[in-house]
Design goal:
The protein has nine helices and 13 strands. It is an alpha/beta fold and about 325 residues long. The structure holds NADPH dihydro-nicotinamide-adenine-dinucleotide phosphate and guanosine-5'-diphosphate-rhamnose (GDR). Belongs to the NAD(P)-dependent epimerase/dehydratase family. GDP-mannose 4,6-dehydratase subfamily.
Length: about 325
């Protein structure tokens, strides 16, 4: 039985990956930081199948102990301060968790289980300002947020441990991927949640930022398969994972609102609070290498993804209609 250690298992990607690995017969260890109230929403259905280890990415001792306990064949380092907008008000925390702690995780593996295969969750945010389109493994980085800068560090330290210590370390440069388990502050989920609540009469407007930014949005359930495929190769390498299609935030609004028979223009309010100090105008990925070398294929398209998210949020809002869910961002 193969053993995997996942950091960030309570998040969107971690929950899909845990599900996928359990189905493949893995023994799955999940690192979980202490929270004052439980946050198992994404993993409630598989909670009893995961072997939980308490730890925090910023605490090297806890990571060494986690690797010692799990003795993993594969380590998926998905934990991060992952919300770009929060990285301006919290730049140091973002640097500690999203950048420096990647070294903590790599050190824990190097010290306790150096033959474990290591996956680092890198991001298209590293490309930032448009240098070339579409963006591939060879496109230079020009990050535009403290988060993007932190991910560039995480990417290069992973490459460095591969080259310095001959570790099987891969960096997956994933473009935006979404699902019904996406955090409520990210724009897709913020929109689909608002659509559901507006449709049910629980909300009357949606305050939002830049409608012109272009993103390459895919389905998280497809993307976690690419993570696993990277660790099944003969040689460690870095791969871009994307759909190769981009849409504006305006397109997203249109697809989501029109799905329930509404016109987004009747409900949105542009709010400067949601406009970022520096924007990434356009992200479009070229994942030819992943398709050719990993045999990775996309299954869910953009409209299908947004419809799936609206349906899930309608279900959820109906169930929670008595409670008020307030999205902070
Ligand atoms: P989420 O924000 O949904 O999940 C982040 C996870 O990290 C949560 O489980 C969170 O725990 C955990 N975490 C945060 N800080 C710490 C810490 N100090 N110690 C331990 N755990 C911590 O992110 P996603 O699932 O969307 O993304 C997974 C990874 O992929 C992230 O690294 C993200 O930056 C990266 N990425 C995501 C993309 C996307 O479009 N989704 C695209 C490219 C990269 P808790 O539940 O306690 O908050
Ligand atoms: P992003 O995702 O920053 O690309 O990072 P997000 O959904 O937050 O923003 C996408 C685009 O939408 C614009 N936008 C808004 N965004 C939010 N959150 N809220 C709004 O009200 C709003 N209005 C407009 C943003 O300006 C931006 O252009 C995600 C995260 O998952 C990262 O962890 C990951 O690395 C990248 O994707 C790839």
């Amino acid at each position: 039985m193969k053993r995997a250690l996942i950091t960030g298992v309570t998040g969107q990607d971690g929950s899909y990956l845990a599900e996928f690995l359990l189905e493949k017969g893995y023994r799955v260890y999940g690192l979980r930081r202490r929270t004052s109230t439980p946050n198992f929403e994404n993993v409630e259905h598989i909670k009893d199948q995961i072997h939980w280890i308490s730890g925090d990415l910023t605490d090297l001792a806890s990571l060494i102990e986690a690797v010692r306990l799990a003795q993993p064949d594969e380590v998926y380092n998905l934990a991060a301060q992952s919300f770009v907008a929060a990285s301006w008000p919290q730049p140091l925390l973002t640097g500690q968790i999203t950048a420096l702690s990647v070294t903590n995780m790599l050190e824990a593996v190097r010290i306790m289980k150096p033959d474990a295969k290591f996956y680092q969750a890198s991001s298209s945010e590293m490309f930032g300002k448009v240098v070339e389109t579409p963006q591939s493994e060879t496109t230079p980085f020009y990050p535009r947020s403290p988060y993007g800068v932190a991910k560039v560090y995480g990417h290069w330290i992973t490459v460095n441990y591969r080259e310095s210590f001959n570790m099987f370390a891969c960096s997956g440069i994933l473009f935006n991927h979404e699902s019904p388990r996406r955090g409520l502050e990210f724009v897709t989920r913020k929109v689909t949640d608002a659509v559901a609540r507006i449709k049910l009469g629980l909300q009357d407007e949606l305050r939002i930022g830049n409608l012109d930014s272009l993103r390459d949005w895919g389905f998280a359930g497809d993307y976690i398969k690419a993570m696993w495929l990277m660790l099944q190769q003969e040689e460690p390498d870095d791969y871009v994972i994307s759909t190769g299609e981009m849409h504006t935030v305006r397109d997203l609004l249109d697809v989501a609102f029109s799905y329930v028979g509404l016109n987004y223009q009747d409900y949105i309010v542009i709010d400067p609070e949601f406009v970022r100090p520096a924007e990434v105008d356009l992200l479009l990925g070229d994942c030819t290498k992943a398709k050719e070398k990993l045999g990775w294929e996309l299954e869910v398209g953009f409209e299908q993804l947004i419809h799936m998210m609206v349906d899930a949020d309608l279900d959820r809002a109906r169930k929670l209609a008595d409670h008020t869910i307030t999205a902070i961002y």
